[in-house]
Amino acid sequence: MAYGRKDLEPEHRPEAVKARLSQPPSANTLPDAVLGGIDGCVTTFAVVSGAFGAGFSPTVALVLGFANLLADGFSMAVSNYEASQAQQEHIDSVARRERHHIQLIPDGEREEIRQIFRAKGFEGELLETVVETLTNDHDVWVDTMLKEEHYLQPVGSNPLRAALTTFFAFIVVGAMPLLPYALPDLDTAIQFLASLVIAGAMFFGIGMLKSLVYQRPVLRSGIRTLLMGGAAAGLAFLSGHLAHALFGLI
How far apart are CA 230 and CA 234, in angstroms? Predict the structure, then answer.
């Protein structure tokens, strides 16, 4: 969505800018939710597709689907937690190292700041003023080195929040394709088709949500996510069908 000048002016007034920048940084959990939702839907619908392709009963598909939903959801949440924790530990380690260097060789670290901002076009007295201002406060100095030398944000994502977001998105979205199998009166083919429609809607909806937040083309993003999920489900269906044909699974 494109904004005009009049739309953007209120949030760029001095008082609005000051209020916005004074707020503490907040972690964006949308990538964790998108990742968990897509993977949860792929996981359960892949199980459903594989079971249908192999000729398994709806009960087997339901049991396998829920078992995979819980196990894979937990595994993915733990993996995301460990990854986020490792990233934060890396940031903290680099910050400690920079702070130690500032204590041991402040002139050398000050020269790093000087060369970084000289490369940005600062020269002469203005450059020295920038260097002096940034190096007067050690916290600002370290944060600047993290961003400009190591390309790191001083504050990473919250590992627990990332893990919980991933887990709940995985469970909620992943459970949707299993709902038709909780209705035993439906014909097996109808159950699979209903699950297919629900999974497709989930994939398309996640793609649309992502595009709305990041201001990307809605339809293209929805179709792209739908195709990726459909490809995973198609592979699962073919695997189940081939296993049934080769080994006579029932």
Answer: 6
114-142 pLDDT, tens digit each: 999 999 999 999 999 999 999 999 999 99
Per-residue pLDDT tens over the stretch 147-205: 999 988 877 678 888 899 999 999 999 999 999 998 878 888 898 899 989 988 988 88
Q: For residues 72 and 94, what is the distance between their CA atoms, to the nearest angstrom? A: 33
Give yes or no for a contact between 235 and 241, defined as CB atoms under 8 angstroms apart: no
Q: Quick one: which of 47, 74, 38 has its CA closest to 181?
A: 47
The dihedral through the CA atoms of 238, 241, 247, 250 has a sign that is positive
Do residues 134 and 144 touch, judged by C-beta distance below 8 A? Answer: yes
197-205 contact pairs (CB < 8 A, 24+): 199/41, 199/45, 199/48, 199/229, 199/233, 200/226, 200/229, 200/230, 202/37, 202/41, 202/173, 202/176, 202/177, 202/229, 203/38, 203/41, 203/228, 203/229, 203/230
Helices within 105-182 (DSSP H only): 106-118, 124-136, 138-148, 159-175
Dist. CA 150–CA 155, nearest whole Å: 13
